[in-house]
Design a protein that fits this description.
heterodimer; A: about 260 residues; alpha/beta; Rossmann fold; six-stranded mixed β-sheet; four-stranded antiparallel β-sheet; B: about 325 residues; mainly alpha; ABC transporter involved in vitamin B12 uptake, BtuC; 14 helices; about 75% helix
């Protein structure tokens, strides 16, 4: 049995003009986990997610998918296994919501270029994905007619429609209202329970800690602590990363939460 | 858009056939369709009535106009996606100024004044210059880290060849200037089938290259990083498709001069019907572009302004039809 993991081994990534952003990061994501990546702005969260998706060439170390180097997978094969949602998506044209999601569904279909239709299977995948993020009511609307949060949900649906085994989401909860934030994390936890490996970044530490099976803190390009959410929230590393600008409370007792200092 | 792709494509095919069927019978001289067709198809050339002779002149011109319109619209639809810019046209990367420069340079080097324009030498030179400009743009863009490197390199090359055109005009014989002006306006008034046969291989090869990449173009039109994550070899698709789209425009420009607006407008007019799927958008754009240019050329043949006995340049007609249409689109929603 091949181990079901997606992992970074001593991964270093440098961007032109910016320099090295990740300095030897090791992180192993297992199937069934919902791991939330937290850390200050510019710490390297997005770069790590991109590298795990195969979109950044490591300057050191490597990314392994089920034990094999990710670089060795074909582009199409990689896309069928790993679904990635960047923090910012800028469509050049005004797609309808369902068209945008269909772009994801096509990845799973293994369609040839001349097979232009989605087919019943693809349409079902689109509807499932739209339904999962409560976006069916505006499936036929155009993206610029949607609110920021609605757009974000459509984009998440697009990645879900890819039906990948690994989900890498860069701040999926940004712009979502409280109701849809919790609904999203409940969905991600359910997907993890179904056997997907989910890694996402988030800024809301409380939200993340309530749903994550595991949290990893990245600070100045290295992972400083990686473990159960309660442990990460109570850690001195977290206090250091955020300059102690929060107060730890227990609500309910035993479940730590953070409050911003005024 | 669900399930409507076939219906939409069928409608655009019908539009194209309609334009092709009516086109040959429209012009300054009216002809009897049934008589002209019968003689054109059956009677020996020597026995043709004037009607059949006029038809024989118009048929290749209409077919060539259709092919040019199709190529320009196809190129424009692809360019708008590749440059992720709804204002892009087949000429955005400098194909038209490079083509004009090539044609004028050949004419200048050939040395004759008032020589026959759109001769083989000018065509080949225009084509070579336009393709070289495109390769140059791609090479610069490849070395640039900017995401808008392609469009900026295109604009720079466009200005460079534009300057070349100005210099050649400055040096040209005054008699040639009128011909140069006429060339810059664009015209599809070809005689005989050979320009059509020269253009067809370009359309078939480049059209196939673009159509084969249709799913990748869908992803690129949405988001580049997402496209890469979904397995699209972004750089390769962009280079290959840009070259195909530019080659389409170059092959047209070399014969007709820069016919404006078709490549910019048609994709905008077609998208509301086809949606963003390039497998539908590209062929429908080609059909609509062909129909539009056949229609515009019919108007150009027919309208004789102020009793002047010469035809309007088709480029002027497409611009007159096109500009108000673009303004109308502007008042509607974002493309």
């Amino acid at each position: 049995m091949v181990p079901m993991t997606l992992s970074a081994r001593a991964l270093a990534v440098a961007w032109p003009t910016v320099g090295e952003v990740l300095h030897g990061v090791s992180l192993e994501l297992a199937a069934g986990e919902l791991c939330v990546l937290v850390g200050p702005n510019g710490a390297g969260k997005s770069t790590l997610l991109r590298a795990l998706a195969g979109l950044a060439t490591p300057s050191g170390g490597q990314v392994l998918l089920d034990g094999a180097p990710l670089a060795g997978f074909g582009l199409a094969e990689r896309a069928r296994r790993i679904g990635f949602l960047p923090q910012e998506v800028n469509p050049a044209f005004n797609f309808r919501a369902e068209e945008a999601v269909a772009l994801g569904a096509r990845v799973a279909l293994r369609a040839r270029w001349h097979e232009t239709g989605l087919g019943a299977q693809g349409r079902a995948a689109v509807d499932r994905a739209l339904g999962a993020v409560d976006a069916l009511p505006f499936a036929t609307r155009r993206l610029d007619e949607l609110s920021g949060g609605e757009r974000r949900r459509v984009l998440i649906a697009g990645v879900l429609a890819q039906e990948p085994r690994w989900l890498l989401l860069d701040e999926p909860a940004a712009m979502l209202d409280l109701h849809h934030q919790t609904a999203l994390f409940r969905l991600l936890r359910a997907l993890a329970a179904d056997g997907l490996g989910v890694l996402c970044s988030a800024h809301d530490l409380n939200l993340a800690s309530r749903f994550a099976t595991r949290m990893a803190l990245i600070d100045h390009g290295v992972i400083t602590i990686d473990g159960p959410p309660e442990q990460v929230l109570r850690s001195p590393e977290l206090a250091r990363a955020f300059d102690s600008q929060f107060r730890l409370v227990e609500d309910p007792p035993g479940a730590p939460a953070v409050l911003p200092r005024a | 858009m669900r399930g409507g792709a076939r219906t939409v494509t069928a409608a655009f095919i019908a539009l194209a056939l309609l334009a092709l069927a009516i086109g040959p019978f429209v012009g300054a001289e009216s002809i009897d369709p049934s008589l002209a067709w019968r003689e054109y198809l059956n009677a020996p050339r020597g026995a043709w009535s004037p009607d059949a002779r006029i038809l024989a002149l118009r048929v290749p011109r209409v077919l060539f106009g259709f092919a040019c319109g199709a190529a320009l619209a196809l190129s424009g639809a692809a360019m708008q996606t590749l440059l992720r810019n709804p204002l892009a046209s087949p000429y955005t990367l400098g194909v038209s100024s490079a083509g004009s420069f090539g044609a004028f340079l050949a004419a200048a080097l050939a040395g004759g004044s008032a020589l026959a324009w759109a001769g083989t030498l000018e065509r080949v030179s225009a084509l070579i210059c336009a393709l070289l400009a495109t390769l140059c743009v791609l090479a610069f863009a490849r070395r640039s880290t900017r995401s808008d490197g392609l469009i900026l390199a295109g604009i720079a090359l466009s200005f460079l060849f534009g300057a070349g055109v100005v210099i050649l005009r400055h040096l040209a014989d005054p008699l040639d200037l009128a011909l140069m002006d006429r060339w810059m306006l664009g015209a599809v008034d070809v005689i005989g089938f050979s320009p059509l046969f020269e253009l067809l291989p370009w359309i078939l090869v480049a059209g196939f290259m673009l159509l084969r990449r249709a799913p990748a173009l869908d992803q690129l039109a949405f988001d580049e990083e997402l496209a890469a994550a979904r397995g699209v070899p972004v750089q390769r698709v962009r280079r290959e498709s840009t070259l195909a789209a530019a080659a389409l425009a170059a092959a047209v420009v070399a014969v007709t001069g820069p016919v404006g607006f078709v490549g910019l407008l048609v994709p905008h007019a077609v998208r509301p019907f086809t949606g963003m799927r390039h497998a539908v958008l590209l062929p429908c754009s080609a059909l609509a572009g062909g129909a539009l240019l056949v229609g515009a050329d019919a108007i150009a043949r027919t309208v004789q302004l102020l009793g002047r006995g010469s035809e309007l340049p088709v480029g002027a007609v497409t611009a007159v039809l096109g500009a108000p249409f673009l303004l109308l689109l502007l008042l509607r929603r974002r493309p």
